[in-house]
Amino acid sequence: MIKATTVDINVNLKAFSQQLYCQGLMHRISEESGQQVLYASNENEAIKLRQALREWMQQPVDVRSAENTLTLQNPRPSAMPYSGNWARRFYWTMLASPVTWLLIMVSLLVAAISGLGANLRPVQDLFYPLLPTSGLLPLLTGIDGIGNWLRTLTPMFLHFGELHLVFNMLWLWFFGQQLEARQSKSLFLLLVLLTAFVSNSAQYMVQGSNNFGGMSGVVYGLVGYAWIIHFFMPQSRLMITNSMFSVFIIALVAMEILASSWIATTAHAMGLLTGLVFGLLKVLVYRLVPGRVSNRQHSGGRE
Predict the structure, then answer these.
(1) Which of the residues 27, 159, 230, 268 is marked catalytic?
(2) What pTM, to 2 d.p., does this model score?
(3) Which range is most confident: 180-189, 231-240, 244-253?
């Protein structure tokens, strides 16, 4: 997809986005550097998107909502982008969240190859490397090549049992597709990699062996990050509430009390902490970096 235009962060584009979908105009909206960035699939659709945005922005707020409601109540059948075409819908979903879907597909592939943990020989190179556990510095200095660096991440693809896999994949999709659609792909990928490294390394140091795996540390990292962004930047409109966040915390405590011997609770906790810290850093940059304000002023809300 290509960048079509930018809009001030305070403009609610939900109604406009719905209008575009009813017109059959595929697009994606993400938050980058304090602005909303609209992407289109090609230059021709980008031109149409910019024209539609100019016309929409010229209308009063109440007229925008009223016009959109009318469009949704009487859509043209030929304009519905996904009607009766699940393949096209799946394609656009993958295009909007490629990192999330790549993580899911690799996890499913590894699960199939290993028989959900029943046959670990084909995937033994995905386990955490055998490194010194006497401290963080010895562990870091013991990572002596790109192969070992990658193996500090790859335990996230290992799953042991159907429930383990399904639980992690559902929550990865739920939070991943939201976050990836609202910020840059590189920032989301950095969050995933950092969370995987910290959660896996912490679990290895505490457990003293590499007999663990799963996407749970990353999932808890996404939960923590999403909650911080939702709490301090409510305009992001992420689908997470304080109650949902509390459920994840209660589940983490319950796992530690009831099943700490066979669940990698350290990875869960450190993933959550990493996500919280990463989210706070994002909020600080968003609020304190002077360039963000000047960019919004110069852009005038749209291009």
Answers:
(1) 268
(2) 0.70
(3) 244-253
pLDDT at 80 over 80: no
Residue in 30, 216, 230, 236 annotated catalytic: 216
Instruction: Please name the residues in contact with 6: beta carbons below 8 A apart, sequence gap of 6 or more.
Output: 35, 36, 37, 38, 299, 302, 303
What are 57's two structure tokens?
Answer: 């922005």
224 vs 278: CA distance, rounded Å: 9
**Token digits of residue 92:** 């656009």
* Pairing mode, strands 2-8 and 27-32: unpaired
- Is 230 catalytic? The answer is no
Q: Give percent above pLDDT 70 in the chain.
A: 82
Active site residue 268: yes
Percent of the chain having pLDDT more than 90? 42
